Amino acid sequence: MAESTVQQSRSRDLDKLLLKPGNLVAPTFEPGVQLRDDLQEYARILVIGAGGLGCELLKDLALSGFKNLEVIDMDRIEVTNLNRQFLFRLEDVGKPKAEVAAKRVMERVSGVNIVPHFCRIEDKEIDFYKDFIIIVLGLDSIEARSYINAVACGFLEYDSDDNPIEETVKPMVDGGTEGFKGHARVIIPGSTPCFECTIWLFPPQVKFPLCTLAETPRTAAHCIEYAHLIKWDEVHSGKTFDPDDPEHMKWVYTEAVKRAELFGIQGVTYSLTQGVVKNIIPAIASTNAIISAACTLETLKLASGCSKTLSNYLTYNGVEGLHIKVTEFVKDKDCLVCGPGVLLELDTSVTLQKVIFYFSWLLFLLVC
């Protein structure tokens, strides 16, 4: 098939959304070829995470007309990734996920440019994130979500009436999967709940009593957590355990195997060790595809205004049949991350001691 024919085929369905008016469009929506061309030329989208969900997001965004993409991921490809992270091959094991994922999508979708960043999200300057119109999250970490949420909300400014200033709003689309379950949500700082507003949605992590780990382990997970939480500190006093360091993980695995053999426990594997230490729930490829499709559609709607966006939290459950539900959560008006806060105007000559005093007095008034 000729390249021009392929391009026409790819843009056919997209044109139905961007070239025609509709009843559900945003007030700013102006259909036409110019809108489609502007999205392709000027819209810069950042994808955070190049794992199971991140691979799907990069592919879907590229096929949805976005040509300027960037992706951040700090991990390297492992053999256990290959069953669900479809952009990777056996020969890619050991290579940075972001770099390989970007290369593979560009090989398959002509005209798209994806810039990979093999680093931690904290390694980037804050202003780096300001250059993107939308940030799409394909993460498996609560801590990473909180960090990006704080960065995006940090750009937000309010006017004198506590209304968000539009040009300072940095929208985010957050996706997550756990086995046969997943979610997609739209976060518009200042308008919808941010991540911290609904942090209670995430269940607490499973913790094992230390006495069980030390005295009466009964499962493979107990042996792994013993090596991780107790044995590591005994042997490496003062050295912080890094779950992303392969050598550290191998050490925990080896010690867990020894512990399991001592108590006659079966089932300790390197993959399980990673899952227990990092609190990883096995991913399902079909779930990643469904959640990625929802996130990509919301990204397109945010960027173009071709339809109303999700309001504002979609949950998917494929454990028994298929169940999809949308819930509209309400923004916490007192949220310390995305709220307008309290304006304090101080003279530049005020000392630090007085600033602390003012804050202490303000806190007292708020509590009382």
From TrEMBL:
It comes from the Eukaryota. It is an enzyme of class 6 (ligase). The active site is at C211 (glycyl thioester intermediate). It catalyses: ATP + [NEDD8 protein] + [E1 NEDD8-activating enzyme]-L-cysteine = AMP + diphosphate + [E1 NEDD8-activating enzyme]-S-[NEDD8 protein]-yl-L-cysteine. The keyword tRNA-binding does not apply. GO terms for cellular component: cytoplasm; nucleus. InterPro entries: ThiF/MoeB/HesA, ThiF_NAD_FAD-bd, Ub_act_enz_dom_a_sf, Uba3_N, Ubiquitin-activating_enz, UBQ-activ_enz_E1_Cys_AS. Pathway: Protein modification; protein neddylation. Its EC number is 6.2.1.64. Residues 36-335 form the THIF-type NAD/FAD binding fold domain. GO terms for molecular function: ATP binding; NEDD8 activating enzyme activity. Keywords: ATP-binding, Ligase, Nucleotide-binding, Ubl conjugation pathway. GO terms for biological process: protein neddylation. Belongs to the ubiquitin-activating E1 family. UBA3 subfamily. Catalytic subunit of the dimeric E1 enzyme, which activates NEDD8. This is NEDD8-activating enzyme E1 catalytic subunit. It comes from Populus alba x Populus x berolinensis.
